[in-house]
Amino acid sequence: MIMGFRLRIVAAASLLCAAAIPVLMTGCATARDSRAVARSSSARLDSWREGATRTAIESFVARTTDPSSPDFVPEAERIAVFDNDGALWAEQPMYVQLAFIVDRVKALRAAHPEWESTEPFASLLKGDAKAVAAQGQHALVALVAATHGGMTDEEFRATVRAWLATARHPTTGLRYDEMVYRPMVEVLAYLRARGYRTFIVSGGGVDFVRAFASEAYGIPGDQVIGSTAKYRYEVRDGVATVVKTGEIDFVDDGAGKPVGIASRIGMRPRIAFGNSDGDFEMLAWTTAGQGARLGVLIHHTDAAREWAYDRSSHIGKLSRGLDEAPARGWVVVDMARDWAEIFAKVQ
Amino acid sequence: MIMGFRLRIVAAASLLCAAAIPVLMTGCATARDSRAVARSSSARLDSWREGATRTAIESFVARTTDPSSPDFVPEAERIAVFDNDGALWAEQPMYVQLAFIVDRVKALRAAHPEWESTEPFASLLKGDAKAVAAQGQHALVALVAATHGGMTDEEFRATVRAWLATARHPTTGLRYDEMVYRPMVEVLAYLRARGYRTFIVSGGGVDFVRAFASEAYGIPGDQVIGSTAKYRYEVRDGVATVVKTGEIDFVDDGAGKPVGIASRIGMRPRIAFGNSDGDFEMLAWTTAGQGARLGVLIHHTDAAREWAYDRSSHIGKLSRGLDEAPARGWVVVDMARDWAEIFAKVQ
Questions:
Q1: Chain A residues with CB inside 8 Å of B268's CB?
Q2: Mutation to test the A interface, candidates B151, B233, B251, most A Cβ within 10 Å
Q3: B103: which of A119, A199, A206, B220 is 20 to 30 A away, CA to CA?
Q4: Cβ of B265 and A222 within 8 Å?
Q5: What integer pLDDT is reported at residue B33 of this predicted model?
Q6: How far is Cα B258 from Cα B41, in angstroms, rounded to an integer?
Q7: Distance (Å) from the C-alpha of residue B347 to the closest C-alpha of chain A?
Q8: What is the mean pLDDT of chain A?
Q9: pLDDT for B106-165, tens place per residue?
Q10: pLDDT (tens digit, 9 = 90+) per residue, B40-88?
Q11: In the prediction, which pLDDT does A141 show?
Q12: Looking at residues B268-281, what average pLDDT do you find?
């Protein structure tokens, strides 16, 4: 989200309103459940209900890891990529990184009295999300620079981790990292146990995602691709330092996703999971490669346990993907039908 | 080298002249020797002579992997980074990627009759390296675009591999990938066997290095950071494609190296190996981190078995690094003294 917001700016108004979408939560265990799963080597897809979707995933992995199969893929080529927002954790009613930005502006308010009369900070501090959104992308850029810039990457990730430890989702009351999808944490572990390497390819800011990717998903920072700010090397008081500038360098969304993968991984993936039209090009490029390829879209169909949204949503809009998935052979996960559990925090 | 050439452009004249520096080669085995080492899990530093240098490396690794040591480093933080040209393989009398560019221009000559009268191609095809160099960086950019652009990353890497299979070093007559340093291939395997993950951080083009990094060093493409061209997502005849544009996007040299590491790995390394002042900032940032850190400079001191060069060399200039290594606690490898073998291709 430094920034997959190019096309998402119109969403900001509704994002910041934090509409109280009803969510039934039944959980009481801790996020440690998912962390144990993320590290398991005998991983299974236990939170996936039996059916065509689960079978399609298991069958693909079986075929591509069986040396006697015509679809066998050498271990060096077993690359699987995953969108984050809406594919590995919840993205409603606003991207988690945007909630972080809002809270950071509030936390830094006392140190920045000029924000009370400077846009877009003044509108944000008044809770006037529509006014923020009306200022367009440069407003968002200013918010990112103010909340993400000037720190080292290490300081920034520590700030995110401290925020995640205390912030709560507006309607579920859960920690955001308790709202990672248990079935997807299982998929990550399932693939890794079978020689696949798992990468996140997110429109979100790369250092934001890195702050929790290892704990939440078992994915190290160098296997997180995301939107990036420019960094600057500086010698501060004689000490070599790398500082985040907050200036947007690369937007890892839409056509940026295959570009980010080519640049960072240098190999076309075998498997891609996404949930929105921002993942379309990533799935299209992945599944256009020779040999066995798997494209999967998570369709948010569960208004009772999570949210139900697709073609008309400002966040995670999924329309072209639904239209073209059958012809392209992509698997569409029906959350309500296919997932026995949703979140990491389960009974 | 798309392009660490900002400061190296003056070198191009001497580079292209391929000065016949005497090199004594005694080898007759194949590059498979180094490939076996790269994959070994019981790796030892057998090509390193006993002495303070070898002991410094072994001692650092022992301390940082011993849970009872105050210098212990958790496995998730065991990141080691390596320059490529002059640190993992030879860089004299010209960067290997530049030799590739020269050969590609010659190979594409018939398809580009306009090059006979267009600079910088005309001068290069006449063998007038000084005239090429005199045209400055834009000439080099044009050469890179013509030889690296327009292909998919997959096509480009295949082109590099085909070239490496037949090209020979002008004075040793070896394949370039036989001129990887056996002691360094041992260091890579030694570190990996002890839980370190190894990354290349090269001024060279990332896809050029990826074409051989797995075979030569056992390093997968996503653990190669290098200078990058811009990529472009395209739908060609209905098929999703990612194309290299040849337009320079990021120069991974000097202060660009810590920036590249922060952006791609998202963690400050524990160990950095380099050989030139282009690696200075990478070593400075690495060793400025808290806890145990190791910086190593390879000093090319062996005119008999390889090359001897440092402060006045146009390629791989090493001056500030030599001056500041003692005060910064960096280990300086004396190739003539410390390495029992030099190249992967040994007796």
A1: 154, 242
A2: B233
A3: B220
A4: yes
A5: 56
A6: 29
A7: 30
A8: 88
A9: 999 999 999 999 999 999 999 888 888 788 778 888 898 899 888 988 899 999 999 999
A10: 556 899 999 999 999 999 999 999 999 999 999 999 999 999 999 999 9
A11: 81
A12: 98
Domain locations along chain B: 2-338
Distances (CA, A) of A16 to A115, A143, A170, B204, B335: 18, 13, 11, 44, 61
- Looking at every residue in chain B, the average pLDDT score rounds to 88
- A266 to chain B, any CB pair closer than 8 A? The answer is yes
Residue B292: its pLDDT value, please?
98
What residues have CB less than 8 Å from B111, skipping those under 6 apart? none
Distance from CA of B210 to the nearest CA of A (A): 7
Helices B153-166/B96-107 angle, 10° precision: 100
Residue B20 confidence (pLDDT): 30
Closest CB to A258 among B210, B220, B240: B240
Q: How far is A263 from chain B (nearest CA, A)?
A: 7
Lowest mean pLDDT among A293-307, B13-27, B214-228: B13-27
Which residue ranges of chain A lie beneath pLDDT 70?
1-42, 346-347
Alpha helix positions (H), chain B: 12-17, 32-39, 52-65, 96-107, 121-125, 129-134, 137-148, 153-166, 182-192, 206-217, 256-264, 280-287, 320-328, 335-338
Whether the upstream peptide bond of residue A335 has omega within 30° of 0, thus cis, is no
Q: Phi and psi at residue B26, in whole multiples of 5°?
A: -115, 5
Q: Hey, what amino acid is at A134?
A: A
Tokens of B294: 């190791």
Which residues of chain B make contact with A288, given a CB cutoff of 8 A?
239-241
| Reduced 3-state DSSP string for chain A | CCCCCCCCHHHHHHHHHCCCCCCCCCCCCCCHHHHHHHHCCCCCCCCECCCHHHHHHHHHHHHHHCCCCCCCCCHHHCEEEECCECCCECCCCCCHHHHHHHHHHHHCHHHCHHHHHCCCHHHHHCCCHHHHHHCCHHHHHHHHHHHHCCCEHHHHHHHHHHHHHHCCCCCCCCCHHHCEEHHHHHHHHHHHCCCCEEEEEEEEEHHHHHHHHHHHHCCCHHHEEEEEEEEEEEEECCEEEEEEEEEEEECCCCCHHHHHHHHHCCCCCCEEEECCHHHHHHHHHHHCCCCCCEEEEEEEECCCCCCEECCCCCCCCCCHHHHHHHHHCCEEEEHHHHECCCECCCC
Q: Do you find a cis peptide bond into B179, omega within 30 degrees of 0? A: no
**How many residues does the structure list for chain B?**
347
Chain B residues near residue A38 by CB distance under 8 angstroms: none
Q: How far apart are CA A226 and CA A218, in angstroms?
A: 17
Contact state of A233 with B207 under an 8 Å Cβ cutoff? no
Q: What residues of A are in contact with residue B281 (Cβ under 8 Å)? A: 233, 240
- Taking contacts as CB-CB distances below 8 angstroms, the residues of chain A near B264 are 222, 264
- Enter the pTM of the model: 0.89
- Tell me how far apart the terminal alpha carbons of chain A are, to the nearest angstrom: 32
Give the pLDDT confidence score for residue A33 in this predicted structure: 56
Separation between Cα atoms, residue A330 and residue A336, nearest integer Å: 18
Token digits of residue A95: 């991207």
Nearest residue in A to B238, CA atom? A288
Please tell me if residue B237 touches chain A, with a CB cutoff of 8 Å.
no
Whether A220 has its CB under 8 Å from any CB of chain B: the answer is: yes
Chain A contact for B295, CB < 8 A? no
| Domain B2-338 architecture | 3-Layer(aba) Sandwich (3.40)
**Which strand (E) or helix (H) includes residue B333?**
strand B331-334
**Identity of the residue in B199, B207, B288 whose CB atom sits nearest the CB atom of A266:** B207
- What is the DSSP-derived secondary structure letter of residue B59? H
